Every structure is written in C-alpha cells, then in structure tokens.
C-alpha cells in the first residue's frame, strides 16, 4: 500500500486561516511580496511572534497559489518528509504533471533521496505560475540529512517556486550564499516585533477602553514586542486586572512570562472551560467528535467555539472550523500542567487517544500516544499493523523511532524482532541487526507451537541471508542454509511476498537484483535460496520469482541464453498469474531480448507489445514510457531509424531536459536515437549529467552503459583517445562481473571499437594487461558474424600503393586525432583533410576510420 492523496494526513497540507480580527501588518506584507522574486524566505523567531499568523495574512492577500506543509517530529523520516513535500508541491501542477509526481512517489523506495529530489524538481519545473511552498514548524526537523537535502532542493528550485520556512529557531543551515545573490531574506524576531502603532490597533480591537499610548509603549518595552505577551496582557486586562497590577508580572525570559501568564489566564477561566483545555491539550490536532470521544461528553463543538471566541490560542485548520490545534507553546504548557497536576489522568487520556485514533485508522498518531501512555503491548500490536504500510512507503527512520520507544526490559515478539532486523538491514545498521538476530536465535528452542517456530526460522533464514550479503560472508550463509534446509516452513508474507520492484524495467536494476552485481557467489546463493523456498512449496512467492527473474537476467547478461530461457519458461505461468508489473514486465522484456539476440525481431516486438498491453491497462505512464524506450532500442538495433524516431517523439524527454534517475532508461534510449541522428553533442551532454547520478546510486550496469555510450559517441566524432578512455571505464566494470550482452547488444559499432582498441593497445606495447586483453577477446568472440557494412575482403595487394601523405594520415587516425588536429599537424585546411581522407578510403575500399585502421592493421601498412 502506497501513500496516496487519500491516505496521507491532509490536515498537514492545509493553508493557515487568516483571523478576522488580526492586526494588518503592511510593512511585513511588502517584505514578503518582494522576497518572492528570490528562492526562499526564512521567518525565524521564538514561539508567540506571529509567524503563522503573518503567513496566513499574506496567503489571504496574495493572488499566487500557496501550498503549506505543517511539520511534526515524525516527519524527520526522510522518505516521509519528501513524500509529503511531493504531494504538497504537486498541487501547483497541472493534472498530467501531478500524475507524474504520483508515479514518482511510487518509485521512491527504489532510488536514493537525492535522486528522488532531482526527479521531483524536474517535475516542478513545469509549474506554470508563480507558486509559494510553505514549510511551517520547521524547528521540529532535527535530522541533519534532511537539512542537507533541503539545501540541495533550494539550490535547484524552479524560478516559479518560492519557499517560505517558518521556524521557532534559527535555520539549521546557512542562507548566506543565497542572501549574497539577493535570492533569500530572513525575517527574525526583531523584525516581527509589534510596533507601537500595531500594538495600539491590537488593543483597540480587544479592550474598551484600550491602554494609552504611554501604557502600550511600556508594555512593548517589557515584552520586547512579543506578540503572545501582548495577547496574554490583553487577556489579563479583560479578566479585570489593572494596568498597574499587570506590568510587574512581565519579568524574566519569555518562557517564564508565558508560564506565569498562562497560569493566570487558566485560573481565571470557568472550571469547565479550563478542564476542557487541559485535557484536550494532549492532542496535536482535534475536532469536536474526537474531543467528545476522548472526554466522554457531547458539547465539544460548543466548547471549541467558546475557546475560539475567547481567543485562547486555538488555531483553526480549515475554513469550515471543523479541525483545530492549539498554539504549540500554549498546548505544551497545558499538557505539562496536566501531567504535573494529575499524572494518572494524563496517562489515561493518552490511552483513550490511542483507542480513538486507532479506531479511526490513524495508527501513526495512535502509536505516539501509546508510547506516551507507556502501553507497550498495544504499541507492539499497532506497530505490527502499521509496519507493512510504512515499509512500502519507505518510512524506515520512523519505524526505527517507534522501535526505540520500547524500553530495554521489554521484549517484542520474535516475529516483530525479525522485522526490526529487516529494517535495520535496509538502513545498513548491521551490528545492531546481528545482536537482535542472535537474541531471536537463542529464544528459538522455547518457542511453541512447532509451526510458529518454523515460521520464525523462515524469517531468520531471510534476514540471515541479507546479513550475509551485507558482509560478503557467502560461505557462512551456505553453512547456515544447510542447517535450516529441512527445518523451515516459510509462511511470512511480509518477507516472501514483499514487492521489491515498483518502477524498474529489469529486476537487476533494483536492490533485489543487487544493482547489476553478478558473480559466481551471487549465483550460488540465489540457487540455494530458491531451492529452499521451492522445496517447501513457495515457488510462487514473490521473493522466489524475483530471485529467479534476476537470475534469468543475469544469465542473459553472461550470454548463457539457454540457461536464461530455462528459468523464463519455468516461471512463466506463476509470473503471468501474479500479474505484478515489477515481475511481469521484466519477464516479458527478457524474453524479447532473448529473441533479439538471435535477430528474431518479430517475436521480440511481440513480447514488448504484450508488456505494453499489460501496463496500458494499469494506466501507468512510467511503465508505458519505459516500454516505449525499450521498443525504440529494438528498432535502432534493426536499423529502422525513421520508426525509432517516431517512437522517440512519444517519450517525455528532450535534448534540453535535465536527466533524472527515475527516467534513466528512457534517457539512455533517447541518447541512442540522438547518436543515430548525428546529434552527438546533445547526447554527450545528457550523458555527462547522468554519470554522477548513476555513480551516486551505485548502479553498476548504468555506470557501464553510460561509459559505453560515451565511447561510441566520441568515436563517431573521431575523438579516438576520448573514446578509448570511456571504453576503459566500461571494460573495468564489465570485466569485474563478466558482462557480455551489454557490449554485444550495441552491435557492429561496438565490435569495431573493441577491435580497434585491442589492436591499438597491442601496438603500443601491451598497456592492456593480459586479463583485460582476454576479456576483450572474449567479448569479440561473442559477437555474431557481421555482414552488413563490413569492410570489403582484404586484397592481397592494394590496387594502388599508399603515398607518404596517406600513410601519415593513417598514423594520425591511429592516434585518434580529429580532422582539425590532423589539419594542424599537417598544416592543411580541414576541407583538404576531408578530401585526402576520402581518397584514402577509396584506395582501401572502406567507408570509415575504424574500417581503415582494421585494414591497415591486417595488411601491416604502418609497419612498412
């Protein structure tokens, strides 16, 4: 289950409501209006300085769309934070782009946060009118990774998007680089203080008779323009205190004054109102129904209305006045007072909140109250219900926070402990994971009944496997699996039916597929693991099918085509029946690749079309575009350039776009089309942007593919040295994992480049080590016999011998010189070089540099 618009807390994304009796502050409104021309505005001041009220006033006055996200401490989870950011900012987009953001959110768990931010920014560049994105209560975000990520987000913010950040404390990152460019301003407490004029207007609207100018100025001096202090003073005056009685109470810091005055305010209230305020203060958000359920009363709507009329720090969250929250300083004070005065009641109310919120399906909020109430058995029960949802949404930090709520003396169930280990492994916290695994293993002998014991063993097998992959101790896993081989009966749907692929065209591009890693060890573990599952009837589980599909794709890469076909045939019925796009699409396209490898393009296109029909029924644009990109590659391999161009026009990418990782496969397909259209410069610029993204993700297959394309494109332009440099990068990755098909599927151009590279390196004195030389020879041997556009059969003797100028041209070509460099070396014009090259090609009976050098090598022309 993914976090969609219907499942998120929409109250977090409501714009603050402007109060009817607010004091207009045109001087600050002008500052905010001017600031919109830059990237961001920071509004940073202690509680009670009117930050949210100012934002509400500005939203009511501006004609620009505004999207507000009110933050909570649980938003320190990076996935949760950026998922809410995406949902919130997407509201400024047109429907198609909004849908694209929703698709992006679904792929979030398969990419890094920075890659997700790149992709989100790419979509936000489609915002058509100036839009304001507001983050309120940012002081609750203490995760330093989020601070760094938000800085990155601001750096690349689209021109039509402006960010406002409201925080009780100073921003946890420097804004100097933006302020120096006049792209950011910060409104601090000093600027937010009420002026005398604003304070007079405030009291005129609230008290009859209002304080004099002199008295108002005295209050401003004592409160330092602190708006909440003035509001508390007003409440005291309304309660009957004289100005002379009130003024001495303003001593000490703001918190001291607040504590004193809140106490004064609360003691003057009717007991019914005071009790209602105190008891509902434990809620972060409330409505009349929730208050009635919490307190066992029926008049909460009237009470909330009374509190609102008394201006007692109650903030409406919607225009219909259905939802509210207390000013956080006020709410914190009241909750602390209740806890101090009546701890049993405070605990009881938190427990009631657990029951009310869990009944509403608001488990994250209920979990927080269960932790406060100290009800750890119920916390455990709710965590078991919520963990799968939060896992699917990638909220790993939040899940770990909830696990940390359990005291050391409390032992969760072995099943939940194994899930805890699973999350720790996803966060690379292997030491703590190992400790918990050992605790569960120690408890195994005492766990009954036997069926439950075996289920726990199945979970242990899974997390132990992951621990081994993290540590690389493959022999340890083999010994472990032998021990459990005949003892497990896996039934844990969370692990064995977890959907590991939400967006990738091939499983080997996911974490499940180890992002391109191939080795005899991974093959051995995969076969042993699937063997254990199948021996116990779990051949149709998602985990088994995913590992099998990854194996099939790996065998294809290794050019073990019959092994790949065997697995594809073995799993076809189960994968077709499950209809999971992340399995079915890779399965069908792997079949298509298999047929394309033998030039059976009719069947290759058939399987690609079958995959497209399946995802078209899902109305999923991401899958559709990726399959279009796959079809484009097939057409290019066939040489059907005009049809490939038509397919490329349907893709949502262009040569001027900024590549993002979640569209990497689409961009790499489009780059191949640009190369065929002789637009090498545009293609190379896109690749230059894509390489750091692939490196950041640790996507080995992508790193190699990008280097291969750079090599081919540079070679097209005659930049042989640059081409060889990129080819060496590709070979370094490919040799480590014995990749074959990635090279072979690039066709004759790659064959010629590899041949030229091997020849040149051998002539230069074996700068290629023997292992690499053998690898290149292995690659060349895997290419099919090439017929089209092949060099003419080498004559035993040239019809006309080469002159010294033509031999020098060949030497320049062997050095990788461009036409311009050749012209400079031989003191010729580029036009003359082109004429001489044409004559040289005619003599050699070839049509390209590569073919010319191959003929020269075979005829040993440069050794004469």
Task: Please characterize this protein's 3D structure.
The chain is mainly alpha-helical and 864 residues long. It is built from 44 helices and 8 strands. The strands form 2 sheets. It has a 5-stranded parallel β-sheet with strand order 2-3-4-1-5, with helices on both faces. A 3-stranded antiparallel β-sheet has the order 6-8-7. A hairpin with a 6-residue loop joins strand 7 and strand 8. Helix 18 runs antiparallel to helix 19. The chain is globular, with a radius of gyration of 34 Å.
Keywords:
single chain, 864 residues, mainly alpha, 5-stranded parallel β-sheet, 3-stranded antiparallel β-sheet, 8 strands
Task: Spell out the blueprint of helices and strands.
Elements (H helix, E strand, L loop, with lengths): L25 H10 L4 E5 L6 H11 L4 E5 L7 H12 L5 H12 L6 H12 L6 E6 L7 H12 L5 E7 L8 H4 L4 E5 H4 L3 H9 L8 H11 L3 H12 L4 H4 L7 H15 L2 H10 L5 E2 H8 L4 H10 L4 E3 L6 E4 L1 H14 L1 H17 L3 H11 L2 H17 L3 H9 L9 H13 L3 H14 L6 H22 L2 H11 L8 H4 L23 H16 L6 H16 L3 H18 L2 H17 L3 H18 L2 H18 L2 H9 L14 H13 L3 H18 L2 H17 L3 H18 L3 H4 L3 H16 L6 H13 L21 H11 L4 H8 L3 H15 L4 H10 L6
Parallel strand pairs: 1-4, 1-5, 2-3, 3-4
Antiparallel strand pairs: 6-8, 7-8
């Amino acid at each position: 289950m993914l976090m969609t618009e219907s499942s998120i807390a929409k109250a977090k994304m409501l714009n603050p409501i402007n109060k009817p009796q607010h004091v207009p502050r045109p001087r600050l409104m002008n500052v905010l209006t001017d600031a919109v021309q830059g990237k961001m505005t920071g509004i940073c001041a202690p509680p009670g300085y009117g930050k949210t009220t100012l934002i509400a006033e500005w939203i009511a006055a501006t004609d620009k769309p505004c999207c507000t996200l009110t933050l909570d401490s649980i938003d320190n989870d990076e996935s949760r934070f950026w998922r809410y950011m995406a949902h919130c900012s997407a509201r400024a987009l047109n429907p198609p782009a909004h849908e694209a953001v929703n698709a992006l959110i679904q792929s979030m768990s398969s990419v890094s946060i920075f890659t997700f931010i790149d992709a989100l920014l790419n979509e936000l560049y489609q915002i058509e009118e100036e839009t304001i994105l507001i983050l309120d209560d940012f002081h609750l975000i203490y995760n330093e990774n989020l601070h760094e990520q938000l800085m990155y987000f601001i750096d690349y913010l689209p021109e039509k998007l402006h960010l406002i950040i409201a925080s009780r404390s100073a921003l946890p990152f420097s804004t100097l680089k933006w302020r120096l460019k006049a792209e950011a301003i910060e409104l601090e407490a000093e600027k937010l203080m009420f002026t005398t004029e604003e304070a007079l207007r405030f009291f005129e609207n609230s008290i009859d008779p209002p304080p004099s100018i002199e008295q108002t100025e005295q209050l401003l001096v004592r409160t330092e323009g602190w708006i909440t202090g003035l509001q508390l003073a007003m409440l005291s005056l309304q309660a009957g205190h004289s100005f002379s009685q009130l003024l001495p109470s303003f001593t000490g810091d703001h918190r001291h004054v607040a504590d004193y005055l809140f106490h004064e305010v609360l003691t003057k209230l009717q007991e019914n109102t005071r009790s209602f305020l105190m008891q509902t203060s434990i809620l972060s958000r409330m409505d009349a129904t929730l208050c009635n359920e919490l307190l066992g009363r029926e008049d909460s709507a009237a009470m909330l209305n009374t509190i609102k009329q008394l201006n007692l720090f109650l903030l409406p969250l919607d225009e219909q006045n259905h939802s509210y929250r207390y000013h956080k300083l006020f709410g914190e004070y009241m909750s602390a007072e209740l806890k101090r005065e009546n701890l049993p009641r405070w605990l009881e109310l938190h427990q009631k909140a657990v029951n009310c919120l869990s009944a509403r399906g608001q488990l994250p909020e209920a979990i927080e109250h269960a932790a406060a109430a100290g009800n750890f058995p119920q916390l455990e029960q709710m965590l078991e219900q919520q963990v799968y949802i939060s896992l699917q949404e990638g909220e790993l930090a939040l899940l770990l926070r909830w696990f940390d709520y359990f005291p050391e003396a409390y032992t969760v169930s072995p099943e939940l402990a194994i899930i805890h280990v699973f999350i720790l492994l996803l966060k690379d916290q292997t030491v703590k994971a190992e400790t918990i695994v050992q605790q569960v293993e120690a408890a195994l002998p005492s766990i009954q009944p036997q069926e439950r014991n075996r289920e726990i063993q199945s979970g242990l097998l899974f997390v132990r496997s992951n621990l081994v992959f993290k540590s690389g101790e493959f022999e340890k896993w083999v010994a472990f699996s032998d021990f459990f081989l005949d003892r497990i009966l896996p039934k844990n749907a969370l692990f064995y039916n977890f959907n590991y692929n939400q967006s990738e065209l091939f499983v080997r591009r996911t974490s499940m597929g180890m992002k391109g890693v191939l080795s005899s060890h991974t093959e051995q573990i995969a076969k042993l693991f699937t063997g254990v599952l199948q021996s116990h009837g779990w051949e149709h589980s998602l985990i088994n099918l995913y590992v099998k599909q990854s194996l099939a794709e790996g065998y294809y890469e290794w050019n073990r085509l019959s092994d790949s076909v065997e697995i594809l045939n073995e799993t076809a019925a189960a994968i077709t029946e499950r209809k999971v796009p992340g399995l079915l699409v890779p399965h069908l396209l792997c079949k298509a690749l298999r047929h394309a490898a033998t030039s059976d393009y009719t069947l290759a296109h058939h399987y690609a079309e079958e995959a497209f029909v399946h995802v078209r029924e899902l109305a999923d644009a991401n899958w559709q575009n990726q399959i279009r990109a796959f079809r484009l590659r097939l057409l290019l391999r066939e040489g059907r350039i005009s049809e490939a161009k038509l397919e490329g026009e349907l893709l949502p990418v262009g040569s001027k776009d900024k590549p993002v990782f979640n569209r990497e496969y689409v961009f790499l397909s489009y780059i191949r089309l640009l190369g065929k259209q002789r637009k090498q410069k545009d293609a190379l610029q896109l690749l230059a942007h894509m390489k750091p993204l692939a490196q950041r993700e640790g996507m080995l297959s992508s790193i190699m593919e990008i280097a291969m394309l750079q090599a081919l494109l540079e070679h097209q332009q005659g930049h042989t040295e640059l081409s060889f440099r990129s080819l060496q990068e590709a070979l370094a990755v490919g040799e480590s994992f014995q990749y074959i098909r990635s090279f072979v599927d690039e066709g004759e151009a790659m064959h010629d480049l590899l041949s030229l590279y091997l020849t040149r390196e051998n002539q230069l004195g074996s700068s290629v080590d023997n292992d690499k030389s053998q690898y290149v020879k292995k690659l060349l041997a895997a290419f099919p016999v090439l017929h089209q556009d092949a060099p003419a059969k080498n004559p035993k003797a040239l019809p006309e011998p080469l002159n010294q100028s033509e031999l020098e041209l060949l030497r320049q070509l062997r050095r990788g010189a461009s036409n311009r460099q050749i012209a400079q070396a031989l003191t010729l014009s580029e036009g003359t070089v082109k004429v001489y090259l044409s004559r040289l090609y005619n003599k050699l009976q070839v049509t390209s540099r590569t073919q010319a050098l191959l003929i020269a090598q075979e005829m040993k022309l440069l050794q004469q």
